[in-house]
Design a protein that fits this description.
The chain contains eight helices and ten strands. By secondary structure, the chain is of the alpha/beta class. The structure holds fructose -6-phosphate (F6R).
Length: 238
């Protein structure tokens, strides 16, 4: 069952999620944190950085697992690895050996590695307008582990804003599967931006493979953070 947490602003969401992450890492310095890229978690990462600095919390023994990465990327600066470095890793004392990304050569090795570290304690997620989580597009099997996907034109168009041109957007990516994500002990889903349709879908309790995020209804420990404005917009869609 998804617990909806509705806040006045993005800032309040970021503050609350960051506080939660920091307090968990204080309790367990070997915390295993699942990370997302994209716009939605950026402010949360900023707050994590400032709180960690203020309270002198070390991330050197924290393990991180990112949701996804592009395959065959020509421009290194467009990689999710680079994004994480710029938006989180470079400002804290992460050990590069502990920051993990899936590799297309052996997708399932990622699931094995996650298992070996004891599993993801908290997974941060964003959502696509079409309800994708990670790069799990509509129709992805709920039983999927980490795998290579061919990106839909919709997702390539959505992501083209980060590339010089649409031609530069890769056609494939590697992503944790829906099963990988569901194995996380706890999930925080941050819904911001023009995601009213995805949010509306999640407000109904139906689980449907055409809305990949709907599987999250079956997770035992998940919170969905959104703003009051976006929530009201979603409710008003007929
Ligand atoms: C990113 C990821 C994607 C994004 C989603 C929302 O690692 O897995 O599923 O979370 O596309 O992106 P933003 O936050 O940019 O709207």
């Amino acid at each position: 069952m998804i617990k909806f947490v509705i806040k006045q602003s993005e800032d309040e969401i970021a503050e609350e999620v960051a506080l939660e992450v920091i307090s968990k890492i204080k309790k367990n310095p070997r915390f295993v944190l699942g990370l997302a890229t994209g716009t939605s978690p950026v402010l949360t990462y900023k707050k994590i950085i400032s709180l960690a600095k203020k309270e002198q919390v070390s991330f050197k023994n924290v393990q991180t697992f990112n949701l996804d990465e592009y395959v065959d990327l020509k421009i290194k600066e467009q990689s999710y690895h680079y994004f994480m470095y710029e938006n989180l890793f470079k400002d804290l004392d992460f050990n590069p050996l502990n920051t993990h990304f899936p590799l297309e050569e052996d997708p399932l090795a990622y699931d094995r590695l996650i298992n070996k570290t004891g599993g993801i304690d908290l997974q941060i997620l964003g959502i696509g307008q079409n309800s994708h989580i990670g790069f799990n597009e509509p129709g992805t099997e709920f039983s999927s582990w980490t795998h290579v996907v061919t990106l839909t034109e919709k997702t390539r168009l959505d992501n083209a804003r980060f590339f010089p041109s649409l031609n530069d957007v890769p056609t494939q990516a590697i992503t944790m599967g829906l099963k990988t994500i569901m194995e996380a002990k706890e999930i925080v889903l941050i819904i911001l931006g023009s995601k009213e349709e995805a949010l509306r879908q999640l407000s109904s309790l139906k689980v449907n493979p055409l809305h990949p995020a709907s599987i999250l209804h079956n997770h035992p420990n998940i919170k969905l953070y959104t703003t009051k404005d976006l929530y009201q917009k979603a409710q008003s869609i007929k």
